[in-house]
Design a protein that fits this description.
Layout: E1 2-3, E2 6-8, H1 12-22, H2 28-46, E3 52-58, E4 63-69, E5 74-80, H3 84-91, E6 98-99, E7 101-106, E8 113-119, E9 128-132, E10 135-136, H4 140-151, E11 157-160, E12 163-164, H5 166-175, E13 181-183, E14 185-186, E15 189-190, E16 196-197, H6 203-208
Bound molecules: uracil (URA).
Uracil (URA) binds next to helix 6.
């Protein structure tokens, strides 16, 4: 499904795995594996429009005129900490991608997003960037991460999450109209604590068994 620059990938395998992730009885190990598997399945679609160039390759039989990825290569940037769970899944399909990391917290007094960690590949401005966080809840962190990346001259950003709330989609689209959102499920709403309903709980806690 496509709504403006929101793409919801509801392939049956993705829906099945997202349902297993939602189940509160799913173990930490299973949850981690499912996040990685869904990220791999989504990488297939997220990379659908990467440009190709024609090359000549010698097979054992003849010279083939065939295609390889052209120009810009990819970088994946997980938002700490839950985004880390998606990295290996994407890299299994795009092993040449480089990995940057960004960490953001919300100042408890001002509620402003503060970047507390950022380490990016040196050539990231020449790459297509896949920014990742499993949950697009209020959209504040994701939009702030895009802002911090753009301040460094980075363009060509796409945002990939597993579950999005309509409120988060609206906020993100208002702040980052040029950044497409790819998700696996669009849920009902946010609750008063900023959690997605029905969602899957706290993705970081479920990935790392911290609660
Ligand atoms: N972050 C999470 O991990 N889960 C939510 O439901 C919202 C934000």
């Amino acid at each position: 499904m496509e709504q403006g620059n929101l793409f919801v990938y509801d392939h049956p395998l993705i829906q099945h795995k997202i349902s297993l992730m939602r189940d509160k009885h799913t173990t930490t190990k299973e949850f981690r594996e499912l996040v990685s598997e869904v990220a791999t399945l989504m990488a297939y679609e997220v990379t659908r429009d990467l440009p190709l160039e024609e090359v000549e390759i010698e097979t054992p039989m003849a010279v083939a005129r065939t295609k390889v990825l052209a120009g810009k290569k990819m970088a994946v940037v997980p938002i700490l900490r839950a985004g880390l769970g998606m990295v290996d899944g994407i890299l299994s399909l795009v092993p040449m991608a480089k990995v940057g990391h960004i960490g953001i917290f919300r100042d408890p007094d001002t509620l402003q997003p503060i970047e507390y960690y950022c380490k990016l590949p040196e050539d990231i401005a020449e790459r297509d960037v896949v920014l990742m966080d499993p949950m697009l809840a209020t959209g504040g962190t994701a939009a702030a991460a895009v802002g911090f990346l753009k301040e460094r001259g980075i363009t060509g950003i796409r945002f990939v999450c597993l579950i999005a709330a309509p409120e988060g989609v609206r906020y993100f689209q208002s702040k980052c109209p040029d950044v497409p959102i790819f998700c696996a499920a669009l849920d009902e709403r946010l609750n008063e604590h900023g959690y997605i309903i029905p969602g899957l709980g706290d993705a970081g806690d479920r990935l790392y068994g911290t609660r």
